[in-house]
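Here is the promised in-class demo. Please do not try to memorize the tokens; focus on the logic of going from shape to residues.
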């Protein structure tokens, strides 16, 4: 590393310049009227370089750096297989086609801003009974997820000395806030009708749907339930199983919690356990306990995707026979359970613990629409009880006496 002072006649100023032999690059400082001021800044630039505050980008493309990032950082930073698949998919679909052949130190903030503005995703629509795929602008939530992964990538580049900390192009990117939408949920009558239906009770997925609907577990958490973590009235949640059957760690430590069961559900779990033992004796000739709780008629662990697909099939079948169940995805059974607790004015900390949220603000933000409805309804009932109590209501029925 060496530095010098360069004078430009066009501006009449002296500029400090440092030179890096490894990359063959120069970095210029600000122009000064006097050589002494330029020398003072040059010494400051050299100190920053020694402290790694100023770095020179290596001549490596985004794609080559991403390969190493994919191999060494993503498996360590992201806990679940689902998270790793999401971030890799975002890079493959949206980022690598744009930045793949560009050097990492050449990408600027305006390039990232342009990328965020132009991102499009595939959406399947139906026109005249024919399904087709069209390109639509990505939602603010999708853009935030893509930017989050890109920011982790460039933060890694800073640590690896490929760009300077102040040159991170993800800093200061402007994005619209993702709107929080209240998910569609079932009423108590809807859920009671669904779980009491003979079609559902005869399904091999009945216990899975019953547990998800009455505990607020995600399908991954439900598929990861093990008999070794069964305590008679509750399960200890230790891990999940993704849509591909892979065992995954929980996203956060708060996801590792107790899943308390209702008495009716406990009875069904015990019946299922006896049924598993009978199948094991018939197949293997010995009472070998299956490892997982949720299994099919052959004691094979259920997969998350299969539960979702069969939930949809059961809903369509019931609606075809005259039921009027709202069309919701499986994950909304979890939201339905949360809505019951919210409407019953359960303490928000208890709701957050049941859902595995690390902060109550997450629960409040996501279910704020439900909370507002619940608070509004409860206050109306309180006022109504005061206005129309038996004593006050009887006094309203008495005729008013005209003053003399």
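The designed amino acids, position by position:
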């Amino acid at each position: 590393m060496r530095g010098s002072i360069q004078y430009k006649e066009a501006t009449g100023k002296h500029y400090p310049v440092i030179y890096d032999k490894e990359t063959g690059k120069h970095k210029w400082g600000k122009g000064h009227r006097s050589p002494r001021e330029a020398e003072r800044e040059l010494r400051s630039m050299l100190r920053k370089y020694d402290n790694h505050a100023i770095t020179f980008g290596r001549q490596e493309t985004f794609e080559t750096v991403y390969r190493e990032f994919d191999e060494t950082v993503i498996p360590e930073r992201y806990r679940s297989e689902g998270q790793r698949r999401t971030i890799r998919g975002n890079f493959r679909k949206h980022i690598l086609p744009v930045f793949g052949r560009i050097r990492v130190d050449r990408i600027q903030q305006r390039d990232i801003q342009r990328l965020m503005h132009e991102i499009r995703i595939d959406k399947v629509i139906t026109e005249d009974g024919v399904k087709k795929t069209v390109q639509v602008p990505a939602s603010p939530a999708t853009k935030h997820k893509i930017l989050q992964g890109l920011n982790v990538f460039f933060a890694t580049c800073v640590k690896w000395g490929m760009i300077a900390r102040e040159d991170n192009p993800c800093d200061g990117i402007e994005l619209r806030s993702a709107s929080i939408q209240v998910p569609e949920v079932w009423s108590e009558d809807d859920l009671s009708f669904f779980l009491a239906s003979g079609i559902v009770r005869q399904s091999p997925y009945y216990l899975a749907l019953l547990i998800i609907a009455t505990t607020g577990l995600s399908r991954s958490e439900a598929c990861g339930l093990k008999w070794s973590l069964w305590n008679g009235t509750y399960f200890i949640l230790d891990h999940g199983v993704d849509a591909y059957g892979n065992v995954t760690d929980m996203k956060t430590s708060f996801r590792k919690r107790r899943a308390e069961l209702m008495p009716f559900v406990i009875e069904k779990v015990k019946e299922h356990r006896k049924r598993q033992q009978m199948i094991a004796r018939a197949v293997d000739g010995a009472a070998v306990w299956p490892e997982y709780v949720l299994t099919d008629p052959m004691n094979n662990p259920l997969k998350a995707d299969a539960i979702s697909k069969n939930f949809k099939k059961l809903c369509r079948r019931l609606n075809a026979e005259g039921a009027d169940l709202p069309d919701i995805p499986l994950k909304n059974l979890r939201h339905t359970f949360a809505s019951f607790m919210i409407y019953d004015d359960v303490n928000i900390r208890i709701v957050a613990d049941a859902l595995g949220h690390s902060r109550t603000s997450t629960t409040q933000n996501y279910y704020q629409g439900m909370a507002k409805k619940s608070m509004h309804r409860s206050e109306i009932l309180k006022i109504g009880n005061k206005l129309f109590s038996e004593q006050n209501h009887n006094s309203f029925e008495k005729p008013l006496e005209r003053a003399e």
